[in-house]
Amino acid sequence: MKITIKEVTNKHELKKFIKFPIKLYRDNAYFVPPIIKSELLTLAKDKNSAFEFCETKYWLAVDENNAIVGRIAGIINNRYNQKVGKTFARFGWIDFIENEMVLCALFQTVEAWAREKNAEYIHGPLGFTSFDQSGVLIEGFDELPTAYGKYNFSYYSKLIERCDYTKEVDWVEYKVTVPYTMPERFTRLSEMIEKKYNLHCVKLDSKKELPGYAKEMFQLINKAYDKIHGFSELSEKQIDSLIKAFIPMLRLKYISIVQNAENKMVGVGICLPSLSKALQKCRGRLFPFGFLHLIEALRFNDTVDTLIIAVDPEYTSKGINALIFNQIGSSIISNGFKYIETTRELENNFQVLNLWNKFEYQQHKKSRCYFKTLKQ
Length: 376
Known about the structure:
Blueprint: E1 4-7, H1 11-24, H2 36-43, E2 54-62, E3 68-77, H3 78-84, E4 88-96, H4 100-116, E5 121-124, E6 136-139, H5 155-162, E7 166-177, H6 184-197, E8 200-201, H7 210-224, H8 236-246, E9 255-259, E10 265-273, H9 276-282, H10 290-299, E11 303-311, H11 320-334, E12 339-341, E13 345-346, H12 350-356, E14 361-373
Helix pairs in contact: 1-2, 6-11, 9-10
C-alpha cells in the first residue's frame, strides 16, 4: 500500500478530517460520533480560544486510491510547557485503519513537525485542554463510552506500542450501581463533614442563578486540576466559551456546590444524564432532528455520567467528595437512574476511588496516554 500524508489546509479538508472516524466506525455498536459542528469549533484556529497558547497542524493519510485511511493532529501547548518546564508536543485526534504502515507514516509526520518546534518529548492522545477527548482505550471494547469519552478499536494500542511509544499514565472508568436508598452511613458521614468544617451546600432554585457561580466554578477547576496530567490553566476566554457551551445542558438537581463559612466555593460536582446513545442517533448532526434525541436523553434515561468533581486543594483530605455526592446522589436515586458512569480518572486518584468504594461498582474501562522521547 502506498501512503501519502496530506496536511489539512482548508475547511473542506478539515471536515474530511472530522468525518473520517464516523466512516471508520460506521458499523460499530460502541462508537459515539462527535457533533461535526462542535468539532469544527474546537479545531478551527479562529474559533477556539485555546489557540491563544496552542500551535497545531492536522494531517490525513490517504492510499493510492485517494481514500482516507488515517488522521492525526500535532499540538504544542505552550502554557503547559511553561508550567512543567519541558518542551512537549502532543498528538491527538488519532484514528487509523488496522495497518502499521499508515500509523508509522502519521507518527513520522507529527514527530518531524515536533522536532522542528524543538520539542524534547511527544505524548498523547491529548487535546488542547483536559476538556478535549484523550487517551487510547485499552480495556472495555464492549462498553459504550460516555459522551465525553472516546472509543477505539483494540488494535490501536498494539500498533502504537510498535512505534516505540510507552505508557505515560492510565485513566480508569467505573460503572456504579445506584442504590435504592442513600446508605445511612454515607449520609451521616456527610453531616459530620459539614459540621466539622463549617461547610454547606448551595441550594439552587433557578437556572438563572448558575451564571453567578460559573466563573468561580471554573476558577476552582483551575486550582483543583493544576497537578493533573496534561492540564493547563483555562484562560478567561476559554472559561467564557465553556460556560456558554455547558450551562444550557446542565440540570440543577445534578449539580452540587459546596461553600465554606465565608461562602467561598471549595467543591463542585456536576453530573448529566448520559448522551451517548442519543449522540449515536444524531450521527454527527444536531439538525434537523438530532437535537430531539438529546432532549429525550436528558428527560428519560437509566444512566447518569459524572462530568466534573473538583475540590479546593486545601480541602482534599476532608471528605468533600462525599458531601458533593450525597447531595447529587439523592436526586439520582429519586429520579430512577440505575447506573452512574464515571468520566476518566487517573488510576492513582484514590480519593475518587474511595468514594465509589462505598457502593457496588466495577472498573470496566481503561485508557492510556503514551509517551516518547524525541531524538534531535
